[in-house]
Amino acid sequence: MTVKIPLRLRGLDLRDANAYTHIAPDLAELSWEANGGVSLAVVYSDDQFPVAAAADWARRVAKLMPGVEVAEVHDELVSVSDIAARAGVAAEAARLWAAGKRRASLRPFPAPRQVVGRGSGGKSMSLYTWREVVSWIRDVIGIDPDEGIDYLNEAEHAYLNAELAANAASAGAWHPIDVGTTNITTDVRGPRCVGRGVVRLLDVEPLDGPSTTGRRGTLRVALT
Amino acid sequence: MSAQRYGPDDTWPLHQKPYWNKALAEARQADWTLTFIDAPHNFGVVSCPAGEHTFGVDKTAVGGETKSKEAIKKIRWCQHGSGQSGSKVRARQLETVRLLDAADKLIGCVEQGLIIAEAKQDAQEDLDRLELQLRTAASNVEEVLLAEQEAALQAAIDVDQAPDPETLSAELDDATATVKRSESVAKALKVGRPTLAKPLLDRANEAHERIAALQDRVATLRERICPDVG
Questions:
Q1: In a structure prediction context, what are the per-residue pLDDT tens digits for chain B, which is 230 residues long?
Q2: Nearest residue to A224 via CA among A192, A181, A180, A182
Q3: Domain-by-domain residue ranges, chain B?
């Protein structure tokens, strides 16, 4: 089954149709969508290691779309009325499932992930994680409201979020770039414009001393 | 961006992939709009009537069929679809059909479960009969009966996952609630459009009849399992 991994984006509002024109062509394989104010790049993976595939796509998004980053794996929350609409049953049936008053003997209905207020009057609304609810409906009710789609389990979800956080943390940090044996002419002493940025030479760490054409070694440069 | 906007009453441009055309047709019927971008990789953007739900339609990217199927779910799950700004008649028709489809699925599940549960009970009764025969049989036929008992035992194990009558009964309650909900939507439709409502109400009646027949079978099964109860 295909694993669906929605990645929540920061720095892009896909409710605006114009925003779709900024999506890099190399990222067309992802599915882009807005769910209210939440903008998503969705990975549909048939890969053996979907978590690694999603982490890789997140890195590509950050690289190819400056100013846009993947904040986390989106865990879709749904209300009882959403559950009823998606499962195609009456709202009362879904309410009884959620209250544990019906069909709870085989497996208890998932606990709410959030409880939010419903304006004045002290009423509240419970929100459930869709991936947990759909698993319960498949197991207990025997129907499939989200046909052909699987979701990450709790451990995979947490692992991918940790990967994404690590990606974000390393994005601003120094990291070596392998340029192979390419010769780089570096008479850069003051800041120099390169492409759309400015390169400032910080340091040269020689490997084998001066050569006839200059010095070979590790360059540390700042690109701003 | 030189994009063209198409509303639900316009004729939308066709996509080169038929599976995307299916999703686009469903979006148009649900009063969504298309912003046709027509770039090399980007067909356009589809937005719900409230503008809160949108999805991109690519041209030839990998996985397009999965994306189009997911787009259909997104359209069906969006609560801003037809009924908000579109035709109430159409919304009620679609809602009734959706509920009746769901009820059919639930009834189908009960039918399957009941077949397994009845098979399990048959196997159990065979087993009981053979045990009784074994106790009273002469020793020369004991071996034959033992072999038969083993086969019956295996049959009982094979259907060990059978649902109990209480579970089946609860599933039928869900199906009944769903059919009743579909009837109430269809009755609202009947006020102004009786000819549209009639086939839907007929279908709901058929669903009720199927549920009643299944309830009888569940009751019979319950009596077979616990003859002293009820």
A1: 568 999 888 999 999 999 999 999 999 988 899 999 988 889 999 999 888 899 999 988 788 899 999 999 999 888 776 544 345 666 777 788 888 998 998 999 999 889 988 888 888 888 888 777 777 766 556 676 677 777 777 766 666 667 888 888 988 998 998 898 888 888 877 776 777 788 889 999 999 999 999 999 999 988 888 876 54
A2: A192
A3: 4-77, 88-225
What's the whole-model pTM score? 0.62
Give the angle subtended at the CA of A20 by the CAs of A14 and A22, to the nearest 5°: 115
Question: Any CB–CB contact under 8 A between B221 and chain A?
Answer: no
- Tell which residue, A17, A66, A89, A55, has the closest CA to residue A196: A66
3-class state of residue A99 by DSSP: coil
Put simply, the chain B residues between 37 and 66 with a CB less than 8 A from any chain A CB are 37, 39-42, 44-45, 47, 51-56, 58-59, 61-63, 66
Residue of A nearest to B183 (CA): A90
Nearest to A33 by CA among B57, B17, B43, B28: B57
Q: State residue A201 phi and psi, 5-degree precision.
A: -75, 125
Protein fold of B88-225: Methane Monooxygenase Hydroxylase; Chain G, domain 1 (1.20.58)
Tell me: ipTM over 0.95: no
Instruction: Name the residue among B217, B210, B177, B213 with its Cα closest to residue A141.
Output: B177
**Cα dihedral sign for A12, A16, A21, A23?**
positive
Amino acid at A102: R
Distances, alpha carbon B229 to alpha carbons A22, B115, B220, B223, B225, in Å: 69, 22, 11, 7, 9
Q: How far is CA B22 from CA A85, B6, B27, B44, B61, in A?
A: 21, 16, 9, 15, 17
Mutate to test the interface with B, among A2, A12, A15 (most CBs of B within 10 A): A15
* pLDDT tens digits along A76-115: 999 999 999 899 888 889 999 999 888 877 789 999 999 9
